[in-house]
Amino acid sequence: MSEKLIDLKDITKKFDNTVVLDDFNLYVRENEFVTLLGPSGCGKTTTLRIIAGFETPDKGSVIFEGKDITNLPPNKREVNTVFQKYALFPHMTIAENIAFGLRIKNKSREYIQDKIKYALKLVNLEGYENREPDSLSGGQQQRIAIARAIVNEPKVLLLDEPLGALDLKLRQDMQYELIRLKNELGITFLYVTHDQEEALTMSDIIVVMNQGYIQQIGTPTDIYNEPQNAFVADFIGDSNILQGTMIRDELVEILGTRFVCVDKGFGENKPVDVVIRPEDIDLVKPEDGIIDGVVTDVIFKGVHYEMCVMARDFEFIVHSTDCFPVDSKVGISVEPFDIQIMNRPQSEDEKAVEIDV
């Protein structure tokens, strides 16, 4: 197992009277691509800025390789940050932009030239040394911003929604570029986004945040297939979230009907939240389903149809390559292992406990 690199301990941060992070604990290991994912205002960018040194916590400490760097200025930290708006210097050439940090460190001319060539080759922009930033596309500018960061050989590359200003195709291309760079460079990437697709595509580990707390940490597969609460299930992909009653182990009642599931340990006759992903619902003949309903809406999404099925006053979202026309009477069938059971939180503000990556 890789070594612990960053350790945030009991971090609290307020802006005016608003608590953005409250006793926040997280640690990150070496050589992983870790994504902080959550809605606007959840504290993910503040977390990144505290690690970078642009913000100081009101309480708590930032440990880097076993050393307390809470009050260390940004230029003394072994991290580099790539921002959404690139922050390239418009009056400098591409080579001058990339060399900026190296010149501050008084590196030799030969060293700087070698690093510029290396960085441009790494981001597939060889021959762009003498171009101006304004002559490049958004995707190319973002690559230069990344090149400028990596020439300083940081142990951690911090990326604050770096693809947010790009169009869909460029964003998808850059996702694969970042995966490639992470694999080639062998450094830790800490990435901030509110885009679930980005997180699922690129990450080794996803940290789902809300209201300054960690809701769940896990691999993309774990986060998607085994959400720990309704917030995670709703934020990551489309979900059908229903209230149910756990009758006993492996048996849950939903909408007045009992469904066989595989979950255990929730007790008997306990209220629970139930998550069923749209792609895990099979539409069959009414007599063959567990419950029956009527198709109320159909949208073609390219690789599948998205259908709304009204059943017992609940509108299910269903994804299928088979199309059932509006007003079709259908049965709903779900395999036991596709029904996810979660404890219902006492409140939406229920704190998450300390979790490590």
Binned, the helix content reads 10-25%
The H-level CATH homologous superfamily of the largest domain, spelled out, is P-loop containing nucleotide triphosphate hydrolases
Architecture of the largest domain in CATH? 3-Layer(aba) Sandwich
The DSSP helix count reads 8
The percent range for strand residues is 35-45%
Q: What number of structural domains do the residues give?
A: 2
* Mean pLDDT over all positions: 89
How would you sum up this structure in a few lines?
The chain is of the alpha+beta class and 357 residues long. 24% of the residues lie in helices and 36% in strands.
Give the helix/strand layout.
Blueprint lengths: L3 E12 L2 E12 L3 E5 L6 H9 L6 E6 L2 E2 L10 E5 L10 H11 L4 H14 L15 H13 L5 E5 L7 H18 L2 E6 L2 H7 L2 E6 L2 E6 L1 H6 L4 H6 L4 E9 L2 E4 L2 E4 L9 E7 L4 E4 L6 E10 L4 E7 L2 E7 L8 E6 L5 E4 L14
Helix pairs in contact: 2-3, 2-4, 3-4
Question: How would you describe the overall organization of this protein?
Answer:
- By secondary structure, the chain is an alpha+beta fold.
- It has two domains: 4-225, 3-Layer(aba) Sandwich (Rossmann fold); 239-343, Nucleic acid-binding proteins (OB fold (Dihydrolipoamide Acetyltransferase, E2P)), CATH 2.40.50.140.
- The protein contains eight helices and 20 strands.
- The chain has helices at 44-52, 94-104, 109-122, 138-150, 168-185, 196-202, 220-225, 230-235; strands spanning 4-15, 18-29, 33-37, 59-64, 67-68, 79-83, 156-160, 188-193, 205-210, 213-218, 240-248, 251-254, 257-260, 270-276, 281-284, 291-300, 305-311, 314-320, 329-334, 340-343.
- The strands form four sheets. A six-stranded mixed sheet has the order 6-7-8-3-9-10, sandwiched between helices. A five-stranded antiparallel sheet has the order 13-12-11-14-20.
- A hairpin with a 2-residue loop joins strand 12 and strand 13.
- Helix 2 packs across helix 3, helix 2 (94-104) runs parallel beside helix 4 (138-150) and helix 3 (109-122) packs across helix 4 (138-150).
- The longest helix has 18 residues, at 168-185.
- 36% of the residues are buried.
- Mean pLDDT is 89; it is low at 347-357.
